[in-house]
Structure formats: structure tokens, C-alpha cells
Amino acid sequence: MVLAKQLFKWKVDVSVGKLAVLQGPLNLKGNIYINGLVEGDVNIQGRLWLGKDGHIKGKVMADQAVIAGKVDDLLVVSSQASVQDSALVWGNVYCSAIEVAPQAVIHGVIEKHDAYEMLEKLQEIAESAPEEVPLQVVKNEEEKSNWF
Length: 148
What we know:
Layout: H1 2-6, E1 14-16, E2 21-23, E3 26-29, E4 32-34, E5 37-39, E6 42-50, E7 55-57, E8 60-67, E9 70-71, E10 75-83, E11 88-89, E12 93-100, E13 105-106, E14 110-112, H2 115-127, E15 136-138, H3 141-145
Parallel strand pairs: 1-4, 2-5, 3-6, 4-6, 5-7, 6-8, 7-9, 8-10, 9-11, 10-12, 11-13, 12-14
Antiparallel strand pairs: 2-15
């Protein structure tokens, strides 16, 4: 997996640990490693590395992505996407280039588009997005269960 080998050269700007739970949309310019839970849409202007224990419950948009964890919605990658053996994607995948490991699971359609078509797809998705709410950080599962 070519893109996965390159990720070790990536500079990581933000890291979300295994025990972290984030709620709300996550918007970031830069590179991010997620190995915890994100409940909400994720929009990365940069590179996303979703670790084996990472789980995103929402739409994912990134310039490049290596997915080794779970995504519970649409995955839109404007450039290269790499879906690893441990990955589970419950939604459609839109990208310019993709590599899928033999044991990866994608429950959805994979659509490859050229750069112009990807811009149109991203604009279409952005226009259909709900109004943004601020990001909330939940420290642990016990605190999370008390939220309404």
C-alpha cells in the first residue's frame, strides 16, 4: 500500500488518542491522526490517518486519507485514499485514486473522479451540510453518558 507507507513521513499536527471522544464537526487545516471516537462530520484540509481503533460517526472529507479504522458515513477524498485491512467503511467512497487492501470492508459504492469532478462533488456535499455547531470534547464514556 503505497500511500500507507508514505504516512510515516507525514508531519502530524493534531493527534486524537484512543480514549478521546470528540463531539461536533471537526474542521482542520493540517494533518491529523485519529485513534479515538469522533461523533460528527470531519473536514480536513490536509491528510487524515484514521488508526485501527479510530471511529468516525459522520461524513469524512480530506485531501488524502489512510483509513485503518471505522467510518460510519460518506468518505470523500479529493486526492489519494488508502483503505487498510482493518478498515470498515459504512458508506460511499468518492476519490481521485484509491487503494483497497484485500481484507478491507466497504459497504457502499466506490466512485473515482478526476480533480474537476471531485471539486464539484465536494461543493455538492458542502452545500448539503447542516449548520455547524461547536466542537465538544468529552473526557470519558461516563461523562458522555450524562449528556443530553
